[in-house]
Amino acid sequence: MAEWKSDKELIELVKKELYTPVVGDILDELGYYHQFLPQEIQPMRESDIIVGRAMPALMIDVYGPQKKPFGLLTEALDQLQENEVYIASGGDMRCAYWGEILTATAKYRGAVGAIVNGFHRDTPKVMVQNWPVFSRGRYAQDSSVRTQVVNYRCSIEVGNVWIEPGDLVFADLDGVLIIPQKVEVEVIEKALKKARAEKTVLKEIQSGMSSTEAFEKYGIL
Ligand SMILES: O=C([O-])CC(=O)C(=O)O
Ligand SMILES: [Mg+2]
């Protein structure tokens, strides 16, 4: 039996006890070697953490004024559900993929964060909303004449990470991790076990045990 009974409990547990390195270690152990999004995708604030369900959005490049500016962007935002994470990717990243108004929309709907494989803008106006956004950095260039959302709640690939709608997303200061839904119970249970054991190892080291002895005894580093 898992330690959690609902997504809400799972999210709380991950936030309380886990960190992306330890979960990434378990994914490696299970043969899932490509689950961290590109390193360039970083939080706006060091304290930002996202745990939730992936709601992917697919972007493409466009050039100049469009019949339907932004494509399906507003529809994609307006159907967001509680505890979901908006993850946008696609195109050559010639502009901002996120900003103030998008943040307010997603936050109001109960989504728990946005992760864009591209840039964000309106930085101070996003920051004051106190809602986590991860991106490749700041860039004010407007999106309406440069990109569109062409699909959402669909599979996407970011870097070499395949993302399905509903996959568990865990992002913190060290990285953005996608945990495939089909293995999430095993991954989180093993990660909790490892995180708890790491606490013991830390105590031993701080009490004078050598790291060689600690690794022999616990198999953890
Ligand atoms: O135009 C965009 O893509 C983003 C933006 O400025 C906002 O959300 O306020
Ligand atoms: Mg704006």
From TrEMBL:
Its EC number(s): 4.1.1.112, 4.1.3.17
Molecular functions per Gene Ontology: 4-hydroxy-4-methyl-2-oxoglutarate aldolase activity; metal ion binding; oxaloacetate decarboxylase activity
Origin: domain of life: Bacteria
One protein family per Pfam: RraA-like
Chain positions recorded as Mg(2+) binding sites: 122
Reaction it catalyzes: oxaloacetate + H(+) = pyruvate + CO2; 4-hydroxy-4-methyl-2-oxoglutarate = 2 pyruvate
Cofactor section: a divalent metal cation; Mg(2+)
Entry keywords, A to Z: Magnesium, Metal-binding
Function according to Swiss-Prot or TrEMBL: Catalyzes the aldol cleavage of 4-hydroxy-4-methyl-2-oxoglutarate (HMG) into 2 molecules of pyruvate. Also contains a secondary oxaloacetate (OAA) decarboxylase activity due to the common pyruvate enolate transition state formed following C-C bond cleavage in the retro-aldol and decarboxylation reactions.
Family: Belongs to the class II aldolase/RraA-like family.
Subunit annotation: Homotrimer.
Protein's name according to its UniProt entry: Putative 4-hydroxy-4-methyl-2-oxoglutarate aldolase
Native source organism of the sequence: Maledivibacter halophilus
